[in-house]
## 1
Amino acid sequence: MKMNGARILLECLKLEGVDTVFGYPGGTVINLYDEIFSFKDIRHILPRHEQAGVHAADGYARATGKVGVAIATSGPGATNTITGIATAYMDSIPMVIITGQVPTGLIGNDAFQEADIIGITRPCTKHNFLVKDVNDLATIVKKAFYIARTGRPGPVLIDLPKDVQIATAEFKYPDSVDIRGYKPTVGGHPKQVEKAVSLLLEAKKPVIYVGGGVILGNAADELTKLALLLNAPVTTTLMGLGSFPEENPLSLGLLGMHGTYYANMAVSNCDLLIAVGARFDDRVTGKIASFAPHAQIIHIDVDPTSIKKNVRVDLPIVGDVKDVLKQMLKVLSGQAEKAAAFHKGIVPWLQEIEAWKAKHPMTYKGSASVIKPQLVIQKLRELSKPDAIVSTDVGQHQMWTAQFFKFSRPRTLLSSGGLGTMGFGLPAAMGAQAAFPKRQVIVVCGDGGFQMNMQELATLVQNRLPVKICILNNNFLGMVRQWQELFFDKRYSQTCMELPIDFIKLADAFGAKGFRATKPEEVEEVIKKGFAAPGPVIMEFKVAREEKVLPMVPAGASLTEMVLAS
Amino acid sequence: MKHTISVLVENEFGVLSRVVGLFSGRGFNIDSLSVAPTNDEKMSRMTIVTRGDEQILEQICKQLNKLIDVIKVIDFNEGNAIDREMALIKVTAEDGNRAEVLRIVDIFRAKIIDVTTKSYTIEATGAPHKIDAILELLRPLGLKELVRTGAVAIGRGAKGWKG
């Protein structure tokens, strides 16, 4: 059937299984929006800023595992998407972003609202496409979704000029994609897998180090199975939280800069480190030269460029983590005798770890007079539903959430790990809530990050998205303040948010509800009220202003050089 | 360590900037780069001469392979490839040194492609070290202008890149 480019795009999205898009209209997408007006199969949500629209599509993708879709107009609309795209790129989130572009004849003429968005997004997308001919549109959309979701996932941008939206073509959606330069590896090399298993079974002090790849690759079950079968300790990165239940005694929690004492000690003393879908980020390794100094390293990753980028690797396995873990489990199942010996062999190691746990558990100093932010996180865990989705912003509250919430299911923590984008939390929660209207969706943010995208309260109220927003308010840009306290002689340059904002009145102005706690005994009540109220809610907690995130490994130091909570 | 890499890419809009952007964004060096279409009109071939230790070269090849438009990356080792470069060289050639320039051109089997009473323009082709050598000899005579193509390389033996 012949149809215009705008309609072809929508039909393609529908066939890709897209049910929700986040978009903002404008001059060069007005034709697309005219088609959206009468296209009933896709829900369109209007954020109040394009950046938030992209974060929402990102949150939708993180929570569901599906490809998130965002739309923006050309020029300023497109440039506003950049932070959102870069955030998704750093965390390997599958997304398709569609931007309008000036008509093909005007490209390069500095036309009104023209920006070279293909050039601008080249380094922060997995790939991008400029559609010059309506006859190529369906194939390009098919390729875009395929590239976004396969291999190491990532955002793909399609730049769609206005005249291509208007031009008509026969619509036929291709059944398959063949890109000769793009053939992602799936299964791991069988020999490498066998070698990995024998290295593993020879180890006396193994640690499994899990990254976001396990969540992205839907491999949490296989990972948990492997850890339980081996009875081996598991530590996760921020992005890996939720891939292994933290209530399990084998869990060491978070490692790295704000990781647990015992996770960092375990990694620093292990004789075998098996990295699964993790990329040895500098926030994880600390000083590279003293990272896991006694360990042989096995690295499983779908992206060959992650391997040997930062650290030496003794045994690389390129492949989809789910497939590779399955292969390993299969090989292991044939080696019952060796596995039994392994179980006996690692008992002293587990005891050593228990001793570290007893010596410095993850804890904080409570207070009867002032709300400790960690208390709020613990109460949130206690009072929220087991399948609640928690989105965070970036900073101290993010680390406290990672340390104290105790995640036990994949895709329940949405956080900007790689780029560390303030302003991410609220719109990402919005996307998750749009995907799961019935689930509890909580944002934990600071007063700083909340103000970066607080306009989205309007989107929440308008679309009846009952997101519960917890603001840990210390009137500081807390993480930078902490660094200034520790490393810059308490010179709090521009980190004090001096204006006291009335967040309760703000909620009211948008038609949401607001509750405030100023004393520790009010925390529980405010959370209960907030959770019970229908619709979006702000819960503001006036927390200890100069509380620090601890333990902390100073930037560039070894993991064993931790500043611990006194 | 110098290294020559051939990159076969889709002959599409923006591919060159993807490759160049990768090098600049990740702090890799480009000593020279040459690019043109191949016998398959949908494919272009780039020859990139770069520097770095083993780990950096491994990253360069992996990162290039990761680009969607890159079809194949060939990392040439010493001895398994032939590389050639062309240079156009304008030298001062007046009374005293006109004969000397001609002798050098002759020794290097180069060609004079433009002549004036004051200058010769030379076309020289060869392995990059041969171009370096002729330049070294011509420089004292008065080198006015120099254009080099950068190396192109092809594997030795009967097999094409597809094997």
## 2
Amino acid sequence: MSIKVEQLTKTYGKQVAVDAISFDIPTGQVVGFLGPNGAGKSTTMKIITGYIPPTSGTGTVCGIDLVQDSIEVRKLVGYLPENNPLYLDMYVKEYLEFIAGISGVKHIKPAVERAIEMTKLTPERHKKVGQLSKGYRQRVGLAQALIHEPKVLILDEPTSGLDPIQVVEIRQVIKDLGKDKTVLLSTHIMQEVEAMCDRVIMISKGKLVADDLVTTLTKDGKSLEDTFRSLANSDNHVEHI
Amino acid sequence: MLSIYKKEVRSFLGSLIAYIVMGVFLILTGLFLWFVDGNSIFDLGVASLQVMFDISPYILIFLVSAITMKSISDEKRLGTLEIITTKPITDLQIILEKYFAALTLVAFTLLLTSFYAYSVYNLALPVGNIDLGSMLGSYLGLFLLAACYASIGLFASSLTDNQIVALIISMVLSFFFFAVLGMLGDLEILDKIGRSLNWFSLEFHYNSISRGVVDTRDLVFFLGFISVFLGGTKLVFESRKWS
């Protein structure tokens, strides 16, 4: 199993952000992580990437414990945080060389070239990050995540805020990556899941509400969107304000 | 290795802050040494940099705080802290590399004043007739003092995502530990407690080293002071994991 979490729980004071979630993702699967805003998607991803520890529960990446061997796990995981934070005053190549350095990459130059090629950044490589369009910035964020050839990619809303053409381009990049990597990506766009993912994990108010293959969820003619709405509503988890 | 150190140094040199800090430090110390009436080398008639060593601790409170203010706060504001803390390096390594980058800039700024030292050396009668031990001791003291300021600055920068707030916290803390602690220590009502307060002030140890006698107790105090603030920075880093 590439990613495996068991009874993962995160509480902030009395508020439960993630409530006893368990799932495992085999190597090479592209999984869509769905849920309404505030459902705990980002928190779960932050736990898997080692940014914050779980309150209780355990998790492993490629068999390595998330909390005990956080540094080892980080070598295997590429992470694109929500909102794609970047240093706007660095050049694209300079930034990627810096990230390669702190990711423990031995041969920095070829790794940067490869990441630039994979994310099709070549025409913009000599520009400053701040001069790039949002679509290209997102590619820099992706390049940053995959520079050390991680086995697992965690992408938090990789297509949010992009225009339709950019969305299609980024989806293609992620699809290509998914061929030889395990990908967990969060989104709330259903078409995106149908376009990119093999499987869906849905959470609502911190609880797991669905975990199935996309083909299973859509087989009796229902759209993913209807399934999502009924699942999210079924436990009265989502209230319309 | 050293990727963060290199990035920080490059970002100092790419921004105006490094040049402003160096320029302001050279100009202010130069003015006090050579031009300000009453205290300048020509008025005193003594070939020594004492005036510079008296005034520099106060100038550096502002300049070192300006160097370190964005070190961590800016990463918080941009959100890039989440990227670098999820890479395979430890929090301590991030902090140390950022600290030594700031220290490099500070050391370089102090080195620029060797131009003044050289002038004084040649002004002395006969040439070279200066208290070299005291001057080298003062330089070491000034460097260690600035290193303490840098550790305070990094700590202040980790507390907030606003550079200006970090700057103010850093200046207040630096001034407190350099001067205010000693002033409190001199209050007569505090008596014995006062004397121990005095011992904790940076000024006490700075003056002690400046005399040209390098006492291990002073060195240990400075290194301990730096460790406490870098340790505090690490605690703030880790606080994201508490709840």
## 3
Amino acid sequence: MRTHLISIVLAAVLGAAAACIPNSSQAASCCGGGSAASLSVPKYAVAVADLSFDTELYDGYWDQKGSHRPDPPESDLKQFRLNVGLGYRFAKDWQASISLPYVWNDNTYSGTSSRSDGLGDTTVSISYDLLDDKSSWKIYEAKDLIPAITVGMSLLIPTGISPYDDKNSSFDITGRGFYRLDGMLLVEKSLRPWNMSLSLAYGTYFDRSVNREYGKYVEPYTKGLGDRFTASASAGYTFIYGTGGDSITTTASYAYLNEGNASYNGIQASDSGFDKQSLGIAAAYSSTDHNWGLRLGWNHAIQQNGWGHNFPTTDVVSVGVRYVFL
Amino acid sequence: MSFYKLICTIMITGGLLLSAGCGDNLFPSGEDKRPAVQAGSSGGNVSQKVPDFAVADITGATVTLASSLAGKKGAVFYFTMWCPICDSHMSNMRSTITPLFPDVNFYLVDYVSGSVSGAAGAASANGYSGGVFVTLADVNHTLENNFQGTMGTTVVVDNTGIIRLNEDFRDGTRLQATLAALP
């Protein structure tokens, strides 16, 4: 109990740019995870509306020992997500956002196939700009090195279809079925045309009662999921082209995800946690007036031994469009 | 469209979506809703008798309900789609449970590969070929339908054909207790 309380407090105080950090919701039909699009309202703007589409392709997994294993022969496992997001800056340094995914599962094995769809888990968040980046072209004095620091919290709301709903197959799952509170920290620095960022997040799930598994009622019990830690670092370069100020920012990133063991009636199930490392590249176009933005990204889990444990290896291709309300 | 109009549209749409399809996850229930079943009747629930079946294992040999129980206290059927969660469950069973119950047969039910050779290939690629597990190729989804099985479903059948456990694999504790209680 005390440990759980500490986890909640840690999640609450760690802070940060809730919507700015990849937020794997593990929504796939088996056990995979995707990334919600980042959603950050620029300082000069009132709000942001964002629409993105993710295609996640499954290709094997890391087992308990970190060895990479293939999917069954002739299998083709995919998940598609349409993410609708809205961010609103309600005060100079405060913003709130909501992200709502709709999920399609498309799984084909040589012996069975399944297509299903449904709402995924929703994320609502709030963040505070602790420090602003006084971006400069050159460093003249120490204060030019000050980065932007944002702290925040987000709440994952189990609006998706979980194993505890009236669904008979694991192929139908679009969400975890648990609330999770995340505290996050985002550090960003631009030295035009370069930029870099570091984001950290720590989340704790809230235990829940379970009385049904994949459509079958079972003897009720309490289930918990392990705390989740994510970290990512990125570096980018912005190209200005033309005379109007249109820009394209290219970014390379690294991400680490770890989730602890699940528990049943308060007793931990050993070896049920997982971790994953992935690399990503992205390109984002921003119009001269910064109202419109387009982006394309690719996140790749390295299909080699030792880059993860107990988790699927996937490629996620994302395309998105964003409109900034001034 | 003004920003405020956009907010209203999204909130109304989101509210409708949320109210339409959130299942029991927003307000989970701990109420015991297991249906009453007649003990010994044919079915896939706990206390029911397993309908007879005939399924090939990955060597091509046919496994029936009778053969799975012959000379043993019972049998365990674990449903796998060769995923990381399945691997963690199977690994747990192999290391901590199967050594304790040599008088129980342990079967991995491959309900996705669609052929004996496909199931054999998947078992081999995932490190579960041979050893304490016998992998069954549930090509016609017989066991999947009998037990309402899906990823992680774990079924214990005693040597009279009665189901003692049918639920998602958890930490192995309940499986171990169920096997220890087999007559």
